[in-house]
Design brief:
By secondary structure, the protein is mainly β. The protein has a domain of 145 residues: YVTN repeat-like/Quinoprotein amine dehydrogenase (Methylamine Dehydrogenase, Chain H), CATH 2.130.10. It has a 4-stranded antiparallel sheet, with no helix packed on it. Strand 20 and strand 21 form a beta hairpin. It is globular. The termini are close together.
Length: 368
């Protein structure tokens, strides 16, 4: 049976020509486009309230929503009243604390000509039960935050910035930022291994691996990238590395989705990587998760070829679960960006960077 999908529309906008991001930021945008040309970039499902929390790209800074998966209703969470005009996306920066508090961070799209006008990305908390925000800090002046990784045990948040690719650590309880400065590479999303070490990439052409150990406060700089790493660079955007997604598999390994659409297993004890294969004939693999059945689920595909797959670690087999297509709208998912699953085993996929229309939130049902 084919994958059954429905696309949910937050704001609707279509265009005849492909967008230009930096040249059309701010006052140059007409009001309809500023409001309605959106993309979905980050998803976080809450079993406590059944809501899907969505970080989006929106030029009007209204970038944080919740979606009721039962009633299909959208609610703005009012970030535009808290942030500033350069906060135009929550890229891959939503994490739950153990008490249900959401930690997030803001990203940008403005051109370098406006860099000194922009204060920098913010780390914030949001309380779902009260609707209250708290802005904790602006870790690095001028630079915005593409991705965060939360160590709930040590109360540490790691972040990577854009447009200058810097690495930082934020100690929540001490309210203290450690700036590791320019590392020359960026992952779409990083992960922690079982020892709480943060893994990322460094060097602007080689995109080699590194890991930071918070217990020793030391970085290990490896002299190798992931398999096919150099071939996968610059695919997300100029200067970006080949790591599209990284998760802790709960089996002692980290699993990496590459920008070439490949699945890779990383041994954090040695830094060695093993190429596992591909599930589809397209690029990008920005979303990975371990399902309740122990399988690794992922999304990928580019240029209208958004797809879901799963990987069986016991057999080493890939299963392509199908392409994302809504027959009622006659639309396909242009580019996947993140995925989440609810307590009914329904998958939700964020769509981004569609050059013809606003991005949609895709609801996908598996016939397993």
């Amino acid at each position: 049976m084919p994958l059954k999908c429905k696309a949910h529309i937050l704001r609707d906008f279509s265009m005849k020509h492909a967008p230009m991001e930096s040249d059309e930021f701010g006052a140059d945008l007409d009001e309809e486009r500023r409001r309605n040309y959106v993309a979905f970039t980050c998803l976080l499902y809450s079993e406590d309230d059944g809501m899907l929390y969505c970080g989006i790209t929106a030029y009007d800074a209204d970038i944080f929503y919740k979606f009721n998966t039962q009633t299909l209703e959208w609610t703005s969470l009012g970030w535009a009243d808290v942030g500033e005009e350069f906060d135009v996306k929550i890229h891959r920066s939503l994490e739950f604390d153990t008490d249900g508090t959401i930690y997030g961070a803001t990203a940008c799209l403005h051109d370098v000509s406006r860099r000194l006008e922009a204060p920098g990305g913010k780390i914030f908390t949001y309380k779902p039960d009260t609707g209250q925000y708290e802005v904790l800090c602006t870790p690095l002046k001028y630079d915005y935050i593409q991705t965060i990784t939360f160590d709930t045990d040590r109360r540490l948040i790691y972040g990577l910035t854009y447009p200058v690719f810097k690495f930082f650590k934020y100690d929540i309880d001490a309210d203290e930022v450690t700036d590791f400065d320019f590392i020359g590479s960026i992952t779409h999303i990083s992960a922690l291994d079982d020892k709480g070490r943060f893994w990322g990439t460094w060097h602007w052409t080689l995109h080699n691996l590194f890991c930071y150990d918070p217990d020793s406060d030391e970085i290990t700089w490896f002299d190798h990238s992931i398999p096919n790493g150099p071939a996968g660079k610059d695919i997300m955007y100029p200067g970006a590395g080949p790591v599209d997604c990284m998760i802790n598999g709960g089996d002692g390994y980290l699993y990496i989705g590459s920008t070439l659409g490949e699945l890779i297993r990383l041994d954090p004890n040695t830094g060695d990587c093993e190429y596992l294969g591909k599930a589809y004939d397209s690029r990008r693999m920005p979303g990975l998760m371990v399902g309740k059945d122990g399988l690794i689920y992922g999304c990928g595909g580019d240029g209208g070829e958004g797809q879901l797959f799963c990987y069986d670690r016991e057999s080493g087999a890939f299963h392509n679960l199908g392409a994302m297509y809504d027959p009622d709208l006659d639309e396909t998912c242009y580019r996947t960006h993140d995925l989440a699953v609810d307590d009914r085993n329904v998958f939700y996929i964020a769509e981004t960077d569609n050059p013809h229309r606003s991005g949609y939130l895709w609801e996908c049902h598996l016939d397993l």
